[in-house]
Amino acid sequence: MRQVLGDIIPLSLVVMISPLPIVAQILLLFSKRSVANASMYLIGFYIGVSAMLGIFVALGVGTVDDASNSSVGWIRVALGVIVAVLGIRRLLKSRTETQDPESSEEAEMPKWMRGIDGFTPLKSFGLAAALGAVNPKNIAVGLAAAVAISTTDLSTGATAASVAIYALVASLGVAIPLIVRLVMGEDAAKTLQAWKTWLLLHNDAVMGVLLVVIGVAIAGKGLGLL
After folding, report:
1. What pTM, to 2 d.p., does this model score?
2. Rounded to the nearest 10 degrees, how much is the dihedral formed by the CA atoms of 38, 53, 198, 175?
3. 153: burial class by Cβ within 10 Å (0-12, 13-18, 19+)?
4. What is the pLDDT of residues 118-143, one digit of tens each?
């Protein structure tokens, strides 16, 4: 199981450091029912990520009839290339926006974030579950994590624990703003606003670098099995 955790925890970091889900959590912390909304958002995100990975593992993603190192290696290489390409696209987008003086001064929030300050706890839960489960980036790294789990001879309990640990680490990013709010109270407002501004400005650059590094690492491990 240690080997599996060594493979999937770096992948979960991609989800954990994703700027937009964190920004959404920060916005909820400025809503009328801030703590309730943020708490349900955290729960929804954890469930979304764990359900997505659990389904992939249950479907046997990454398992092949010829369970040789070569077959598994090619699967990992393919997934690594996909993740790296997603990262390169984000970096190119970031470079384009940096060259635009207006966009470099203040990043605009995505349309789906508008009106989030009026969300109920149930809507917050649903948004987070969707962000955790159906985000293309999360799906890509989730597939890589599923391959790492499915191609290892783990017991049912160890498999469930691996999925739970992956989702737990992945959810830390949206948990931190809530923890800061609970610890600092109203004094956290300035800090959270600064985080939101920075994350929106550097969203594509952060995710681009992260995805390229993780993609190359996945592909490298795959090549090592060929």
Report:
1. 0.85
2. 30
3. exposed
4. 899 999 999 999 999 998 889 988 99
Distance CA 226, CA 61 (A): 19
Q: How many residues does the chain have?
A: 226
Structure tokens at 189: 């407002």
Cβ atoms within 10 Å, residue 141 = 30
Using the predicted structure, report yes or no on whether residue 105 has a pLDDT greater than 50: no
pLDDT tens by residue, 42-88: 999 999 999 999 999 998 876 655 555 677 778 888 888 988 898 89
* DSSP secondary structure, the chain, as one string: -HHHHHHHHHHHHHHHT-HHHHHHHHHHTTSTTHHHHHHHHHHHHHHHHHHHHHHHHHTTTT--SS--HHHHHHHHHHHHHHHHHHHHHHHHHHHHHHTSHHHHH-PPPPGGGTTGGG--HHHHHHHHHHHHHH-HHHHHHHHHHHHHHHTS---HHHHHHHHHHHHHHHTHHHHHHHHHHHHHGGGGHHHHHHHHHHHHHTHHHHHHHHHHHHHHHHHHHHHHT-
Rounded Cα distance, 34 and 27, in Å: 9
pLDDT at 67: 53
